[in-house]
Structures are given as structure tokens and as C-alpha cells.
Amino acid sequence: xxxxxxxxxxxxxxxxxxxxxxxxxxxxxxxxxxxxxxxxxxxxxxxxxxxxxxxxxxxxxxxxxxxxxxxxxxxxxxxxxxxxxxxxxxxxxxxxxxxxxxxxxxxxxxxxxxxxxxxxxxxxxxxxxxxxxxxxxxxxxxxxxxxxxxxxxxxxxxxxxxxxxxxxxxxxxxxxxxxxxxxxxxxxxxx
Length: 191
Prior knowledge:
This protein has helices at 3-16, 45-55, 65-75, 99-104, 159-163, 183-190, and strands at 37-44, 77-86, 110-117, 122-129, 134-143, 146-154. With 191 residues, it is of the alpha+beta class.
């Protein structure tokens, strides 16, 4: 009888405790009230697998090489989380608003692979390495009127494959550079 309140407390904490591998974006929730538009998407394994089934849903979609590539990528994913904000004017968020997310990306296993920051904009890509494979990506993209944070967790991840998710699942096009494309192809996506 005396253990019942303790067990209930532990069970309650277990339901709200974050997964240790997953990056938490809660600190960014305060920006939603300032944004003219915001996107908040979280897809875990079962939802990602269901999305993969939609890609193979029609008669001809199994023949569609792009749909098949995306389905194969999804098979290796455990989670996708996206927070994106569009603001009416500049200065409605600060670069410092990303500091709580950046602090999580200083944990063991995470490494910054791309970083470009100035007073108004920043682009950062972090990878999580388990010793033999990349198991996570975090992308922070901040422009004067737009802020996007993407977290992708999975197994056997590759930046070129992850770039193919741009324009899907709330991940904006161009946020993830496609390391597999030739430089002339990159300019096409910048237009």
C-alpha cells in the first residue's frame, strides 16, 4: 500500500520524461505566439512506417523510383521532429533562442559537421555517431524571418539520403544540403 504512491509517481514521470537520445525543442515553444506561421511535426517509427505505406499506395507508385527511395530511407528512421517558424518581420526571435537546443547537441556522440553563423543568419548541421554509424542528424537553420529546427533519428543514416526528405514531412526544401549532388545541381535548388 505504501508503495502505490511511489509507483504512481514513477509511472507519471516515465510518461513525461524525454527519451535520452531525442533532442527536445520545448524551449522553442515560446516562439509560436510571435510567429505568423508555425509547423510542429513529430513522427515516430510507427507513423513513419505508415507514411512509407502511403508512398507505395497506388498501382504505379511501386514503380516510382523516387517513392521507393523515400520508402527505403524511412525504413531506417526512428523519428523525425520539425519545428519551423515564419515571422512577419525581422527581430522577432534571437539567435540565442537556439542556445538550449545547441546545448543538447554538445552531449557525447554529437558533432557539428557544418556551421555558418553571422549576425542575422545561421546554418548548422550536427551528427550523432554511435561509434560505427551515424544515428542522428540535427539541423538548425535561422534566417531573419524564418527559423527551422529538424531532428532525425535512425540507423545507417546518410546526409545525401536525408537531403531527399526535403519538401516532405514538414522538412523544408534546401534546409539539408545534398552532399550527393554535383555543384551545378545545387544551384537549381537555390532558385
